[in-house]
Amino acid sequence: MATEQTSDDTWTLAGRTLRSRLIVGTGKYRDAEQTKACLERSGAEIVTVALRRVDLSAKDNLLSWIDRDRYTLLPNTAGCYTADEAVRTLRLARELGIADIVKLEVIGDPKTLLPDNEQTLAAAKILIDEGFEVLPYVSADPIVCRKLQDMGCSAVMPLAAPIGSGMGIRNPHNIGFIVEQATVPVIVDAGVGTASDAAKAMELGIDGVLMNTAIAQAKEPERMADAMRMGIIAGRQAYLAGRMPIRAHANASSPTGGLIE
Amino acid sequence: MATEQTSDDTWTLAGRTLRSRLIVGTGKYRDAEQTKACLERSGAEIVTVALRRVDLSAKDNLLSWIDRDRYTLLPNTAGCYTADEAVRTLRLARELGIADIVKLEVIGDPKTLLPDNEQTLAAAKILIDEGFEVLPYVSADPIVCRKLQDMGCSAVMPLAAPIGSGMGIRNPHNIGFIVEQATVPVIVDAGVGTASDAAKAMELGIDGVLMNTAIAQAKEPERMADAMRMGIIAGRQAYLAGRMPIRAHANASSPTGGLIE
Amino acid sequence: MATEQTSDDTWTLAGRTLRSRLIVGTGKYRDAEQTKACLERSGAEIVTVALRRVDLSAKDNLLSWIDRDRYTLLPNTAGCYTADEAVRTLRLARELGIADIVKLEVIGDPKTLLPDNEQTLAAAKILIDEGFEVLPYVSADPIVCRKLQDMGCSAVMPLAAPIGSGMGIRNPHNIGFIVEQATVPVIVDAGVGTASDAAKAMELGIDGVLMNTAIAQAKEPERMADAMRMGIIAGRQAYLAGRMPIRAHANASSPTGGLIE
Amino acid sequence: MATEQTSDDTWTLAGRTLRSRLIVGTGKYRDAEQTKACLERSGAEIVTVALRRVDLSAKDNLLSWIDRDRYTLLPNTAGCYTADEAVRTLRLARELGIADIVKLEVIGDPKTLLPDNEQTLAAAKILIDEGFEVLPYVSADPIVCRKLQDMGCSAVMPLAAPIGSGMGIRNPHNIGFIVEQATVPVIVDAGVGTASDAAKAMELGIDGVLMNTAIAQAKEPERMADAMRMGIIAGRQAYLAGRMPIRAHANASSPTGGLIE
Amino acid sequence: MSGSMLQIVVNGEARAVESGTTVAGLVTALGLQREHVAVERNREIVPRAEHEARSLADGDVLEIVTFVGGG
Amino acid sequence: MSGSMLQIVVNGEARAVESGTTVAGLVTALGLQREHVAVERNREIVPRAEHEARSLADGDVLEIVTFVGGG
Amino acid sequence: MSGSMLQIVVNGEARAVESGTTVAGLVTALGLQREHVAVERNREIVPRAEHEARSLADGDVLEIVTFVGGG
Amino acid sequence: MSGSMLQIVVNGEARAVESGTTVAGLVTALGLQREHVAVERNREIVPRAEHEARSLADGDVLEIVTFVGGG
User: Fold this and answer.
1) Do B253 and H63 touch (CB under 8 A)?
2) Which of B180, C110, E29, G11 makes a 20 to 30 Å CA pair with C221?
């Protein structure tokens, strides 16, 4: 059977050459075993993690079981509502020795978890000055994305829909504008709900997709990890293949001549 | 890397056990070489063909180069506008020794190529009486599909959109009704335009997808064949995995407790 | 204030010249008073009624309170699953003296209430031979609609979505095909849920809309009757006015020259 | 015929009590006559205007023919790319004696004409301090809208789609969030293309719609002005009436009992 | 005039009526306005003009219908 | 062997063949592989097994079909 | 009254006006209705009340604006 | 060396530790692997290299953090 992807379709993020275009989160899984199984089946090379106070009752620590030779950890700033909190969180991540690339996420509202783009811009500036490779979670707003890439972010990560909503791509048109103007990788982050959403996102010409809930909260997370891995590749290949034009009317696929009479 | 599909996810069509859920047409390709390459990369086990008067100027005949050990040929009745024409065409296919399973397609209008369901019902009845395994191309109409399955068709093949339009699934709701009531395989036939359409179709719980133009008229047909193969599997796996619920609001993927203060 | 509609925008159905393009049902209302109020506020000139066994316990009969000088009654065949039942029902309607125009509705399935187009075609033929002016409820299927208009139906009434579902127009593309080929009025029947659905239907170039549940089951039916009356006119006027083209990019509405510097 | 709207459905914007929920632009019309005719038929009480260098060759000035007793002029800052330009423009508008309420519009990109929300926030702060009643054109971003209303804007005006695109409401979900949290009127500004778009916008529970191109570039602008006036009222009334629930399956509108047997 | 009764079925329910009862008589006896109903007798429509003349027979099955609200 | 010719129609085109020509002979003469075609003669299928035996007659209308790429 | 001229810029175009010309004078000379325009002189708004009093100086850059149709 | 105790706050909870306790000592005492945590003392990061050397003072407020699963 043909291989899943053509070996030459790699991409570069913050100086790293990557084969997988799927970045996955490590939250909401039943346990470490399920997390590991899903990471493997997703084919991901980068996985997100959150920074929290140590839980003295926790039996094992993520850092003790995650395969850091295989996965690059991407610390996020989930739960931060101001630029200061986000910066403080990522400085601690750097002190932990895991901050080569960071996911900047400054939330503006607890109900929608939509980003506060103004605070995100402020935090990105500080972090870039401190030498971080910043991947900001941002609205599907071409103007803000352009400011972030011009400022020196290593990618822009517009959302498809609210975090954990699974609503799919709410504004493909704006994602298209962001791709048209992009000078850094465009990663759709949050809102993807199923494999066709992931494929559709890739068909917009983006470089990758970041997701967590869609895999972790599927009835069978391991199987959904497979589905997402393939959905991403399918969408990417379809984008590269160049889809057929959409026609308002029909167009026969069998010859219209040579019919018996 | 994980294999593309779990070996146990097979399906049965007219007594055949199949692994691939993608059925592809052989029309509109540049030449035999491109056709063969796309069939291979699609992973298809069944391919459609049309019956036409022999072209005395044709240098080679499809039957001389297509690998019949690998592919089951599915003769169609493209171009037929009445039950009689369709029946006559398939009797000739049977005389050619290639009519184990047949695609019944009775067109009602040259502009939309939408099916004439009334004529299709009439032809299906005759063909089933003559022992054919009938796969009818039909509107996404649960009532007609129920009649066809009750009559003894081996599958029902509702359309996603007009043949060759690439518009994707126009009426997912009706496809869902057809799946709910199905006693035979449901194959979405016609209208799929890109990989995410194929994945989305499979996520509706159908058994397979039949397409031709979406691959043959992509800028790079071979690559699109790959994309479709994987899109179909991705959608199928996502359906089996059971997607997350869609939420009107957000849902954090990182822990909401344990934040630094 | 400008008048609601231009006096010249009338249409003709089965020889009747009509000003209102909204046909409403009389089912599911709280009582006769509410029904009358909603009919008036809808501006309808034609209203549908169902034929049933007399209820000996009923205090008043619809025929005793509905204003037949103002409204043309349109008997339907709701609840009929065969051509015979539908024909029998409409012959009784004729005996009741109310069958100038009739709504032919042959249901194929109790869950979806989708039409059985095959039975509908059979019943239409009989009824037309008996001199009825037939308005058939039918799938949004251009092929069946063409057969019905060619057979002599006085209009075709494709559905927007299942009866009482309020899902809006599921298949605008097929409605468009039906309008393109129409030789009789096209009335969208069933599935409209709110005023924008009604406007959108009219913008497809159809001649009218038939609805019942969307008004009767709104929280305030009387107010929704107003909304629908205006939504229908708004959509019709927008269709006649010829909407602006949809653009992929923006287009300034203020002059781009003459800016201060 | 029933009146177009219930007299009690007024709303308040910056201290003004308004009956019409449609605000229209005055750009892109053939001439003053057509502009006046469209304003009248739109039923608008507020109309936008742009500030530009005087054109010494212009034969008449908008201020000489527009009926300022009937319409409140709403100066905009179209063409401004920075907070400074916008503030400078509106100070000149005030000097012209027409700046009771102002439309703040700071553009971030000439191709999409999407707003620069960061500059818009900065300009809003200055203008509010100077006593202006500020109506900001903004992304459909609940976080930015909340900041603007908290800052003291008199309304928030999220876009439906890019200015002059006529694509309709790209992100109804976010508009819904903005309405849920609103403490000031929500006016959808830009992107509406036809009457059903206007009705659909109002059905989201917003207070009004601002448009220009959809009327000015219709084939018959005067008729489209009628259509929009009624579409806005239809959508508003439907919102107040409370639409029926959307059902996945059908629901009969005629009695299911009492059928003949 | 005989006191003998006829057994008939009206809208699915068994009823007894005096022999000699006409369709019109039955409709009136049921408290219905004749112009508001149509009658089928043993699956055949009885034209309103014949309601007076047509007498019921033992075993007749009648459907008496009218219009109700519907969509 | 006679030199007389038969006028027939093959796939819509008039042709002349020697009398005595069989279906099989015609197919071969057209340069076709017999296992790749099916033949209708005057609207009736001629089973392949009979191609050798069946001779053509003057005025015969034949359809010779095969499979081509299609969707 | 002197015949000497001032070089000014009005809405981006160079113009020469007689020295002593006031803002009001310029506006009128341009054929504009004073109540229809606002004037910026060297980036500062000149309140209408001062149009009569304020004389132009050589090198002044003026913006004279009004309202036009816009969305 | 005195047996006197220091009152400190660790991740929001009051604790008492012996005076002279270092950051490294605290981390170890809590059963944590030093390479798995980062420490903030009174809002300032204590570089891991200084954990051994840095002694705690009465009233110190510490945040000890690590990574957990997140999206």
Assistant:
1) no
2) C110
